[in-house]
Amino acid sequence: MVDIPVVDLSDAISAKKLxxxxxxEFGFFKVINHGISRELVAMLESEAVNFFAxxxxxxxxxxxxxxxxxxxxxxxxxxxxxxxxxxxLSAHPKLMFQKPHFSTISExxxxxxxxxxxxxxxxxxxxxxDICEELGIGTALSRLIGDxxxxxxxxxxxxxxxxxxxKIGFGEHTDPQIMSVLxxxxxxxxxxxxxNGSWASVQSDPNAFYFAVGDTLQVMTxxxxxxxxxxxxxxxxxxxxxxxxxxxxxxxxxIRPICSLMEEGEESMYKKFTWSEYKKSAYKSILxxxxxxxxxxxx
Length: 299
Prior knowledge:
Layout: E1 6-8, H1 12-25, E2 28-32, H2 38-52, H3 56-59, E3 69-75, E4 80-90, H4 107-135, H5 142-146, E5 153-159, E6 168-173, E7 179-184, E8 190-193, E9 199-201, E10 209-213, H6 215-220, E11 230-233, E12 240-247, E13 254-255, E14 273-274, H7 275-282
């Protein structure tokens, strides 16, 4: 286990500083007193459990993901696999309910997902505003999530109990977006990679949310923040359910270091690219690849 930073949003003054420090040191932190009701989270978890309990042939009618939909075992198009099944959906309010082939997702499930993603989007925007205020860079980050063209998505992962202890449920990777917001049940399994290269388990807290720095935010801070590599290992006793909101910018957004953050004479570590270009590159790579490597200026 590792003691990751715990940010209490009810203490606004110390929260901002602690968030920035956590982004620099771990790329990961835990948030409490976040304002999202336990009832909403419980409703979503209940609907997700009901969905994953359906017969396999019924769940398969909502897949395969292309890119959105139901998936089982296979992660992405490049041969990565894991001990899980999942739903991947657009988090755009208008696109989320365009469900031509998601016939086995119930109407209550759709409604509670919409309410949940809206609440988490607002929570993420508030955290990004705290970062911007602490760094003195206006609203350079939250505006990208609040933009109606924001390319954010939502994922629900279900890891059944696995007979083989510590089998990889979801392989090591970083998230390509700006920042991800994770909530999971009380089952263990989530791990982050520390600066020294070792893996550390993160104690589950179903009443908290966990935030992970993504590749895009690493570029926008010119490496001051580091996207955190993470993975999930299975356990043989109980299933694990996790829900992740991936906050992404508009597809046409140019991803580069924020000018007001750069010191005099400081040069960008990265080539210029749009989110669409990086997204296409990321999804052509295998899961554990250093996706940013090809965008470094010295490459």
